[in-house]
């Protein structure tokens, strides 16, 4: 077990480069199961969720080769439609593998899902979507079994779920006939997934809008014409979290290797709260301002304010003058981490499972905290960097799931943070 020791109050400066997107990389690795030739990706983050996905694919018969920030996946000889239960339960994103497995092998099984502890995370939209594509589904104590030959259909999603959109896109890419996904999610990770599938010969249009049309290849596997590595987009949640950190603690922090266009909602909101920003095509510079004002946020599907940026942004709001409201509409139970921020001295009223009122500015006191999940874990690090004194953040493994050696990168810009073995 490891923990972070953090001494707050240090001013940050310099440049912090953003790594490749976890949520894009996981789905692109899954999509490689639709290819009959090796596919190479670059800008792969070195994080635990990626290692788990790699292991799952290897256990299903795929071959993987990693070097620096590149990974090659050769799934020409997939042998198993069963996913390793322990790993699949650990990362919820592994559910996307059902799409390519079912489309390619005609069956797939999946344990009851796991992942971050952020309220109810059912899989009913996946099940309904696969039923629409003609799959048979049985449920047992171990989990779900899917089978059948997939045929395209019209599918309306009750909510624009990211992983459901991606899973159904992958399944439909090599299914028979046309699939239209309505009320689809439009996150940049989805646009990039469509780009990869198209490069492999799939017929997909509309990704990045709320209607995606896929004409299946009638079971023909995909193949890249150009073997050059496919570069993963920068992680927009990491970029946004660093922007928040810079607005709180730096004279000037440059966030590089990022895509400002993917976090317009955060940049708009933080600027309206008084933060000073400049930006280029792939960088953002941010410094703290003496005049940070309260602002309300409502999380929602892209391009609205990302739910994954809600927890780091709440720390920013504890330092803003006045009363701010957070309205979390995507997940239920994603505000529980605020109890710990209250104990640090923040003035927060938890109104209900979806809404909180934060009144600032408040002086945060150092504390010993247990990271409850990936995103709240990073929020605790930010809070500890703002607080006066020495804090401890436990359960570092949650943070390692999604942020590559975050303590080294934060130290490089002046933060006092050490990883220690317990
Ligand atoms: C993805 C991201 C996660 C992000 C979230 C929302 C990955 C690996 N994870 O998660 O970081 O926080 O998008 O931007 O990409 N829902 C159902 N039934 C289902 C599926 C989803 O009710 O079958 C609900 C969820 O409970 C939630 C909402 O739909 O309330 C949106 O969730 P969804 O977009 O599916 O999140 P994920 O794709 O799991």
UniProtKB/TrEMBL annotation:
Q: Supply the source organism's classification.
A: Bacteria, Candidatus Niyogiibacteriota
Instruction: Tell where it localizes.
Output: Cytoplasm
Q: In terms of one coarse class, where is the protein primarily found?
A: cytoplasm
Q: In which pathway does it act?
A: Cell wall biogenesis; peptidoglycan biosynthesis
Q: Which organism is it from?
A: Candidatus Niyogibacteria bacterium CG10_big_fil_rev_8_21_14_0_10_42_19
- Which residues act catalytically here? 116 (proton donor)
Gene Ontology cellular component annotations, sorted alphabetically? cytoplasm
- Free-text function comment from the UniProt entry: Cell wall formation. Adds enolpyruvyl to UDP-N-acetylglucosamine.
A biological process from GO: cell wall organization
Corresponding gene? murA
- Keyword Zinc among record annotations: no
The family note in this entry says: Belongs to the EPSP synthase family. MurA subfamily.
Query: Among its keywords, does the record have Membrane?
Result: no
What is the designated name of this protein? UDP-N-acetylglucosamine 1-carboxyvinyltransferase
Catalytic reactions of this protein: phosphoenolpyruvate + UDP-N-acetyl-alpha-D-glucosamine = UDP-N-acetyl-3-O-(1-carboxyvinyl)-alpha-D-glucosamine + phosphate
CDD domains, from UniProt? UdpNAET
Which InterPro entries does the protein's record reference?
Enolpyruvate_Tfrase_dom, Enolpyruvate_Tfrase_sf, MurA_subfamily, RNA3'P_cycl/enolpyr_Trfase_a/b, UDP_GlcNAc_COvinyl_MurA
Chain sites annotated for binding phosphoenolpyruvate? 22-23
Positions of post-translational 2-(S-cysteinyl)pyruvic acid O-phosphothioketal modification? 116
Per UniProt, the enzyme's principal EC class comes to: transferase
Task: Specify the Enolpyruvate transferase domain's residue ranges.
Answer: 7-410
Question: Could you name the domain of life of the organism this protein comes from?
Answer: Bacteria
Query: Which of UniProt's keywords are assigned here?
Result: Cell cycle, Cell division, Cell shape, Cell wall biogenesis/degradation, Cytoplasm, Peptidoglycan synthesis, Pyruvate, Transferase
């Amino acid at each position: 077990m490891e923990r972070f020791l953090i001494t707050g109050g240090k001013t940050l400066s310099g440049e912090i480069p953003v790594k490749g997107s976890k949520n894009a990389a996981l789905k692109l690795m899954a999509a490689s199961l639709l290819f009959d030739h090796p596919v190479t990706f670059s800008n792969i983050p070195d994080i635990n969720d990626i290692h788990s996905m790699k292991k799952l694919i290897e256990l299903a018969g795929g071959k993987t080769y990693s070097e620096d920030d590149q990974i090659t996946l050769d799934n020409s000889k997939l042998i198993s439609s069963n996913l390793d239960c322990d790993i699949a339960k650990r990362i919820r994103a592994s559910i996307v593998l059902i799409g390519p497995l079912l489309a390619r092998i005609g069956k797939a099984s999946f344990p009851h899902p796991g992942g971050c502890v952020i309220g109810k995370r059912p899989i009913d939209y996946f099940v309904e979507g696969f039923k629409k594509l003609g799959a048979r589904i049985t449920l047992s104590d171990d989990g779900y079994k899917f089978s059948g030959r997939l045929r395209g259909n019209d599918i309306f999603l009750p909510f624009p779920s990211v992983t459901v959109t991606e899973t159904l896109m992958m399944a439909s890419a090599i299914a028979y006939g046309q699939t239209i996904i309505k009320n689809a999610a439009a996150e940049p990770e989805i646009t990039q997934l469509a780009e990869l599938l198209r490069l492999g010969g799939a017929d997909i249009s509309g990704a990045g809008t709320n209607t995606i049309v896929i004409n299946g290849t009638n079971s023909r596997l995909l193949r890249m014409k150009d073997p050059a590595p496919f570069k993963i987009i920068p992680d927009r949640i990491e970029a946004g979290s660093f922007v928040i950190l810079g607005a709180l603690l730096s004279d000037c922090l440059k966030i590089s290797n990022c895509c400002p266009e993917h976090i317009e909602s955060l940049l708009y909101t933080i600027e309206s709260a008084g933060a000073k920003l400049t930006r280029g095509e792939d960088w953002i510079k941010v410094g703290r301002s003496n005049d940070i004002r309260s602002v309300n946020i409502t999380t929602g599907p892209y391009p609205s304010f990302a739910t994954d940026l809600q927890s780091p942004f709440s720390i920013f709001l504890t330092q803003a003058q006045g009363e701010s409201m957070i309205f979390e509409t995507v997940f239920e139970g994603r505000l529980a981490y605020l109890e710990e921020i209250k104990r640090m001295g923040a003035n927060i009223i938890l109104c209900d499972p979806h809404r909180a009122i934060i009144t600032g500015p408040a002086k945060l006191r150092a504390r010993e905290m247990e990271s409850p999940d990936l995103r709240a874990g990073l929020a605790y690090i930010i809070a500890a960097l703002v607080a006066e004194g020495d804090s401890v953040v436990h359960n570092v493994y949650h943070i390692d799931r999604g942020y590559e050696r975050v303590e080294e990168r934060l130290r490089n810009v002046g933060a006092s943070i050490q990883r220690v073995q317990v």
